[in-house]
Amino acid sequence: MKKTHSNLLPRLEEHFRDRRFFKVRQKILVACSGGPDSVALFHLLRALITKYDWKLGLVHFNHQLRPSDAKKDERFVKALARKFKAPFYCGTGSVKHEAKRTKTSIEEAARKMRYDFFLQTAQAKKFQAIALAHTRDDQAETVLMRVLQGTGLRGLQGIREKFRTGRVTWVRPLLVFTKKELLQYLTEQKIFYRFDKSNDSSRFIRNRIRLELIPQLQRDFNPRVVEALSRIPAIVAGESALIEELEEKAWKKTFKKRRGKNVELRRSVFLKSPPALQFRIVEKALKMLNKQSGLSFEAWERIRQGLVRHRYRSSLPKDIDFALTPKNVTIFMKQEVHNQI
Q1: Distance between CA 279 and CA 284 in Å, rounded?
Q2: What global pTM score does this model have?
Q3: Residue ranges making up the domain that contains 304
Q4: What total of structural domains would you count in the chain?
Q5: Are 276 and 147 in a shared domain?
Q6: Beta strands 27-31 and 129-131: pairing type?
Q7: Model pLDDT, residue 196
Q8: What is the reported pLDDT for 3?
Q9: CB neighbours (10 Å) of residue 6?
Q10: 317 and 221, same structural domain?
Q11: Do both 164 and 303 map to the same domain?
């Protein structure tokens, strides 16, 4: 590793110790697109290998959105893995086809396909952790995008720094660092990376936020807006944890049973809960039926107004219905036979 004037590496190591992201001798699968953030993450982790005895692997997913460039990205990451003798795993899939099939956006479909492949690879190859290269800039963009979409407290939690799926831990160790710091590090170390031209496309809302809205906010309102926005998830974390605890207790009291694609709740207990917990209970039931489903504010307002009735039914996205009966609240897939309505 070349000598650097940047203090990024020691700061990152201190951050690792403070957050306890990784254990000694752990197998870490680094998600790498070939872009500057993920390439920087791989090299930073590699710089600490000797000290912590980590085993690094590189995983890449080809979304088939930019046929020529995507193949070059794939070859770049494969060459990076070969150069440093790291195992390389590559997946591919048509994001456009999947977005059409699932009736979701290109961004949503790409994220799901990519993350599913990362997790399957980690599980199959026995990696204990997956490292993702999101930065403070990504956090600020996410928070601002969700505010523009009318998010609630949960959405303001932004990008999670660490979470588990089964035995695999997902870690985003660069969330406190800016893209500018990573680019400086790459320049100082003379490390090459790929540039994704689609990041400059105004087709995607996140790109417009990054390229147009945030610069305007920095110029006209707050030069440190990225820092301010990225601080919000930490501010709301405590309140969110408390509400999630209350939600879990309310769910245990309200949940009655699940039968196939039907989730039944106790009407009397549900109606006694505060509206904020009612919202979360319904959303949790929806997620049990379809992980891609969710409850919009508008849909919840319709349901809330119908709760005063003896019987009530409302249609929700993903072919799911909400039904209020004399004894139960039932959330169910429309194709299921439902005799209680």
Answers
A1: 9
A2: 0.86
A3: 260-333
A4: 2
A5: no
A6: parallel
A7: 84
A8: 47
A9: 15
A10: no
A11: no
